[in-house]
Each structure stands twice: as C-alpha cells, then as structure tokens.
Amino acid sequence: MEILEAIRRRRSIRDYKPDDIPEEVLLRILEAGRWAPSGKNFQPWKFIIVRDEKVRRQLAEASAQQYFMAKAPVIIVACGYPEESYARMGRYMKSWVVDVAIALEHMMLQAAAEGLGACWIGAFEEKEVKKILGIPDNVRVLALTPLGYPAEDPSPRSRKSLEQIISYEHY
To answer: For residue 1, what pLDDT band results from cuts at 50, 70 and 90?
Structure first.
C-alpha cells in the first residue's frame, strides 16, 4: 500500500472483531514505531503492549470509560521519557511529546496498511494508567490506542482544503 493511501484509509475505529493479531503483523507495526525519527535520535519512548483482557478493561475504564477499547485484542500504551529527550526543541520545550506522537502515528499508519484499525486515545487519567501498568514516576503516558481488525467501516471525515491550511513564503 502506498503511504498516502494508508493515510487516507486510516480511521478512528471504535468497534473491533475479537480476532487475534498475528505476531508477525504486530511486530511490523511495532517496527514502524521503532524507525520513527526523534529529536537528536534520543528515541525517548517505550510502548507497552497489553493483551490481557482484564487489564484492557481497566485501561478502558481509566480512559473516560471508553469501553470499546477493551474489545480490541491489543492496546498499545505510548510512554515517553521527558528527561531523556531533546531539551530545547524550538528553544522552548522538550521533544518527548512530539517524538512519541510521531512513533505512535507511524504504528497507526502501519496498522492501517495491515488492514487493522486503531484509535488515538487522549482522554485518560494518567495516574490511573500508570498505576494499572506499574509505570514509574519519571515516565509520562502520552496516548493509548486499541489495535485490532475493524468491525466497522466509518466514512471519511471532511478535511480542510489545502488553501485553508498552507501559505507560501510567509504567514
């Protein structure tokens, strides 16, 4: 699949088939994240792969009761290391948020290319997620995504035109 096609096909999936994800498919998805760029190539991330159904239900509860998440056979929890990231991105912020986001999006695009669905979950209680998974204090949780074969086929959402979102040479 071409990259632009995978980007256009990717949707936020909120209903999943119970089918397991073959290990080789999951490894290709994780490999896509591993190859993501990061500030100074520090790669300040860790991805927790959650397959246990009880833990998936706990994560769904900690994610604003988004119980659809637990239907997916896998939840990926994207974590970052603020103190191990480039400290001066734009000369004003640490890069870990951007770095982890790029890696997770790489994984989500590879998932789309593999025929899998995902959904960026930003509504969650970080303290609860950290407690459930035993994540240390120095590690931050950026996002979660359920991962599985879609049991739905949402229509594409509208996009702004290029003219609305770009300019040339100056603002």
So the answer is: low
